[in-house]
Amino acid sequence: MFDTIKDKLGKFNIDLVSCLALGECKIIRPYLLDRCGIEKGSVIIFAVPYLSPVACKKRNVSAYAVSRDYQIFFSSLFEKIIKELKESFPENKFAGFTDHSPINEIEAAAKSGLGVIGENHLLITEKYSSFVFLGEIITDAVLPSNAGETKSCIKCGKCFKACPVNGNINSCLSALTQKKGELNENELITLKKFGCAWGCDICQEVCPYTVSAIKSGSIFTKIDFFNNSLVAVLTSNEIEMMDDAEFGERAYSWRGKQTIIRNLKILEEKEDEQ
Questions:
Q1: pLDDT beyond 90 at 172
Q2: Is 114 in contact with 45 (CB distance < 8 Å)?
Q3: What is the pTM of this model?
């Protein structure tokens, strides 16, 4: 079964795939397992690369937000693959997850050998660095596990040194760009200084794994979804002109238009001042 799932994912240009026993994973949302009726079994965990060459050029949003919302990709992926798995293995149960998962995805991915855990708390892979989304297919089938030692990165400290808030995840730039309402003076200064209207990739960009993966060319995704419908540089006017359907397909839509429009206008004011 694992080889079947790996082959199916491979057709979507997903090549980092591993497996753990469900009992080897840290369960953080048990109610999600209850909903799909799975108590024991296996987790097929995989990394989806999303970095496009376009996102390596000028942009004012995080690289993951340059394409359409990745949740759209995963929804389509799971709909197709899980339907096929249920047809091929009717005696088993299957459920797909990303982000809002029953398990701690990063710990599971590292434990399964997909990568190491960085000081920025992200999974770092050799091929794609940390520019990956994690997904899982959980099944009640018992499959061979690839469980091993959970490893950390080389701890060079470059991510902390480059971080606008010195690695304080409770006040990171990404969280600042998602904050509703008015920003205080210090927040305005920070946003203008780093010039990103949504998210932050600084710790990922300075990482030696990223530098190496860019140099080798391995870092770039081959998945069509993340190479199409790209918007790397936004303006407040563009967001205001988007209808609800178009805006709803972007990764920043969940926060509503006003938050990102506010951020963009702050950055546009900075440009006018220069």
A1: no
A2: yes
A3: 0.95
